[in-house]
């Protein structure tokens, strides 16, 4: 069994929102691209976080997933040893995570969307490539395709770019660079609206 240290890199799977039921179950917002993996995963860690930042003073708590099921776009989790409403209430706001080393393996042409955050988005649709900006977030709920939330240099407004396979040309996670051939006018239309 591996032990997790507070300073290691974590993959956030869910954030516990509230109690769900009378036997210690909790309802959590999904933060993973693979919610079905909860059925296979027997241990996770609970982390204390404020917003998107981990509390460096709070130690990760390893816990066993006794049961889980999807519920209206969220997930209900029941942890071993959490058997009452009072026990479950103490988990409110905690992040359910795993060490980055335990992520599900991806196929050759796949990428974790969360790994794109911090990458520079470059439009290579023309010979003169154009830096669109830095990816600051991903909106998975906008429709059938996730939208990259991009901060353009020198512009306070966000640009939303569909993360569509048809546009994708190259992903260089080590170099923090994502190349896409974007449709003509996509960026300009958003900047002129703002």
Task: Note poorly predicted spans.
Answer: none
Would you identify the CATH architecture of the largest domain? Answer: Beta Barrel
The CATH class of the largest domain turns out to be Mainly Beta
Structural class: mainly beta
Q: Strand tally, please?
A: 14
Which bin fits the share of residues in helices?
under 10%
Question: Would you write up a description of this structure?
Answer:
This protein has two domains: 10-102, Elongation Factor Tu (Ef-tu), domain 3; 113-193, PRC-barrel domain (SH3 type barrels). Helices cover 7% and strands 41% of the residues. The chain is built from two helices and 14 strands, in the order E-E-E-E-E-E-E-H-E-E-E-E-E-E-E-H. It has helices spanning 85-89, 186-193; strands spanning 10-19, 26-30, 43-47, 49-50, 53-54, 61-71, 74-79, 95-99, 120-123, 130-139, 147-151, 158-162, 168-172, 177-180. It has a six-stranded antiparallel β-barrel with strand order 1-2-7-6-3-8. It has a six-stranded mixed β-sheet with strand order 12-11-10-9-14-13. Strands 4-5 form a two-stranded antiparallel sheet. 20% of the residues are buried. The mean pLDDT is 88.
Topology, element by element:
Elements: E1 10-19, E2 26-30, E3 43-47, E4 49-50, E5 53-54, E6 61-71, E7 74-79, H1 85-89, E8 95-99, E9 120-123, E10 130-139, E11 147-151, E12 158-162, E13 168-172, E14 177-180, H2 186-193
